[in-house]
Amino acid sequence: MKAGQGVRAASHSLHLHGLPSELRHIHWAESLVGPVDISMPGVGMHDLSGAVAIFSHVAWRSRKLAFSPSVGDRRVTTLVEEAPALEAPTPPSHRRNHLLVAGCIYLATSIVLWSHIWILGDPARSTTCACGDAAQQLWWLEWFPQALLHGHNPFYSSALFARFGGINAMSNTSWMLPAAVLSPITLLWGPIASSNVANLLAPVLSGVAAFALASRFMRSFAARTVAGAVFAFSPFVIRNTVLGHLGFTLIAYVPLVLLVGDKLVRRELPAVRAGLLLGGLTVLEFFIGVEVIVFTAFLAMILLAGTAIVRREVLLRAARDIAVAAGVSCGVCAVALSYPLWVAVAGRNHVAGPYWPNAGHTLFGFLQSGEDFNGISRALQAIGYAGPIGPRPDFVGLGILVVLALCAPVIARRRAYAVLAVAASACLLFESAGSRQWHAIPIVSSASQSRLALVAALVLGLMLGMVIDGWLLPARPWLVRLTRSRGRWVGSLAAIASVLVAIVPVASTYSVPFVIRTARVPAWFSRDASDVPSDRPVLVIPFAWEIRDEAMAWQAETGIRFSLVGGWGFIPGSDHSKDEVLSPLASARFLRQVTTQTSSITPLQASRFHALLTAWSPIEVVLVEAVTPVAVSRNIRDMLGSPSSSRDGSLTWIIR
Which long-range contacts (CB under 8 A, 24 or more apart) does 615-618 make? Predict the structure, then answer.
């Protein structure tokens, strides 16, 4: 570093780069608060811990250190408050440029993953599959703008699960915020186009947010970029992005909350403003995915507990600010979310969790990539992706754990690193071991523990970034001496090796670009659906129930012009409380049986089918021949007789 690039108060005549690192810290402190008494007991001049103690002593005496807080902008971190980097703080314009460049890198990566759509395909017609979970994403992206245009309540819809009570948007992952933002695209080019835009940009936004958080812990641009990439393109995100789980790919909320929390604890941000930011972020995330809020709260509690152990005085000094911010945040959420929360817990057709059976867990599953990550999975095809299955969503790999363990001595901020290590261990073990108590906690019970892999990826990314930063910009005395004697290329090679060992084993399990299909809509939906009266729901065969929900996507792609009998989502079952998966509806299961049965229909089944349709009348039955087995089509004809109309591959019956 050249003379004059340090703190302006420092003497320009003294070349700081020629001083030992310990003396540079003392000189920096003296330039701010005057001469420093370095004769503190137990502090050695040639010990880095001595420099840390000296700096902490000076900071406590001055309490008004004039230094800008960003380690990417050269900040001291909350969890450690160790000696800062000595370069001048990065100007705001440079910080923005760094975020922009990192965003471009993440965007280029996302374009490569989705190149079959954005380079070789049609963004308005190409998708992973207009079926399974991906069909849900299409439907909810279409529902929100249609609800506003036609004056419907966006929190509840009878356009889906007609004759089953409709669907509660707050009991489902309805992605209202992305749907609102993407409404112009949806109305102009359809839900497939808006879904593709969301899938492309979601990891980019998440990566940029993680990059900003990483700037609190590291100085190197490369280190921060890697930290953001590990979070934004983790196996968890890759699996969920191809399945249409936008709530688990647009996850910028996690690093942004930690960023605000870090500034709050360090008292860089007024408590009221921090509370407003946290409350606002939580309100926005509520309309993306509630599970992410649960996991973020879990991670924040672990980090606070770790900080309380390592730097208790930091939390004690900020205790009042934390309490004020928490109160303001809760107040914001109470005001903004009172009605949506009521809809979720007491509104029409709401579901009481848990939504899923208590899934099994694989101990240390995060070390296993999966049996055949390059193979095709029928289960994955059924829920919306025809490409190779890829690694397990919680896969971390042994490589990154080895790197983080062996490279700990190069870390400049060891206390922060230790707290992050505890958080990563807790997340990984809790997600793989499971806990029965988890399903006994209200609201939390609706979140699957296995999805803690989401926050574990962020913590591991930060730790790997700190390792890379430690190699590229050495701060430990032994490493400084090594790079001076051998050259900076030693640290650069070590950083590259760390990245290769940590990331390549995971990245090698990915199959890119993603496999894409061209969505095709049967003619009846685009031609005749708009003529269906509003009081006449449509039963489409194949019957839309659970993951066999192509009709749901066809309905969305043509503007939700009618009410669909069935669908794929969470609705109360026969006990009017738990989800239908846990408490099956007899009528729905019977319909699924007779509309998929290839053997002959019995007289009892035919009688029950007629009785059900009569009870639901008026109702229109539409059979799409192209995707219905011939035997099933024959059975439906036998039960309903000659169709009212037959053209363009669709048979129609009207039951009055």
Answer: 616/163, 616/537, 616/565, 616/655, 617/655, 617/656, 618/533, 618/535, 618/536, 618/654, 618/655, 618/656
Q: Is residue 73 part of a domain?
A: no
* CA distances, 516 to each of 195, 380, 557 (Å): 13, 14, 17
Question: CA of 379: how far to CAs of 133, 240, 243, 388, in Å?
Answer: 12, 14, 12, 11
Residue 619, classified by CB atoms within 10 Å of its CB into exposed (0-12), middle (13-18) or buried (19+), is: buried
For 235-251, the DSSP string reads: HHHHHHHHTT-GGGT--
Q: How many CB atoms lie within 10 A of CB 295?
A: 27
Q: How would you classify residue 576: left for phi > 0, otherwise alpha for psi between -120 and 50, otherwise beta?
A: left
DSSP 89: P
The encoded tokens of residue 475 equal 């701060």
pLDDT digits (tens, 9 = 90+) for 532-562: 999 999 999 999 998 889 999 999 999 999 9
Q: Which residue has the tokens 């009998």?
A: 565
Domain boundary among the residues 507, 536, 558 is at 507
Are residue 100 and residue 47 in the same domain, yes or no?
no
- The Cα–Cα gap between 577 and 355 comes to 10
| Cβ neighbour number for residue 517 with a 10 Å cutoff | 17
- Model confidence at 359, pLDDT cuts 50, 70, 90, reads low
Number of domains comprising the chain = 3
Neighbours of 591 (CB within 10 A): 22
| Per-residue confidence band for 191, with pLDDT thresholds at 50, 70 and 90 | very high
Whole-model pTM: value is 0.84
Task: Let me know if residue 75 belongs to a domain.
Answer: no
- How far is C-alpha 119 from the geometric centre of its chain's CA atoms? 25
SS3 518: strand
Same domain for 489 and 573? Answer: no
Reduced to 3 states, what is the DSSP secondary structure of residue 585?
coil
211 found inside a domain: yes
CA–CA separation, 392 and 387 (whole Å): 14
Are 294 and 444 spatial neighbours (Cβ–Cβ below 8 Å)? yes
Query: Which residues, in sequence order, are CB contacts of 393 under 8 Å at separation 6+?
Result: 235, 236, 239, 240, 450, 451, 453
Whole-angstrom distance, CA of residue 364 vs CA of residue 539: 45
The dihedral through the CA atoms of 187, 191, 193, 194 has a sign that is positive
State whether 217 and 276 are in the same domain.
yes
Residue 74 lies in a domain: no
Q: Give the integer Cα–Cα distance in Å for 154 and 170.
A: 10
What is the CA angle 111-498-236, rounded to 5?
A: 45
301's enclosing H/E stretch is helix 290-310
Question: How confident is the model over 15-69, as pLDDT tens digits?
Answer: 333 333 333 333 333 333 334 333 333 333 333 334 334 333 433 333 333 333 3
The token duo for 232 is 């934004």
Q: In 10 A of CB 378, how many CB atoms?
A: 7
Distance (Å, rounded) from C-alpha 244 to C-alpha 138?
8
* Domain encompassing residue 28: 16-62
Q: Identify the domain boundary among 507, 538, 567.
A: 507
Same domain for 534 and 620?
A: yes
Domain co-membership, 611 together with 488 = no
Q: Do both 455 and 409 map to the same domain? A: yes
pLDDT at 71 (0 to 100): 36
| Whether residues 443 and 529 fall in one domain | no
- Pair (544, 429) in one structural domain: no
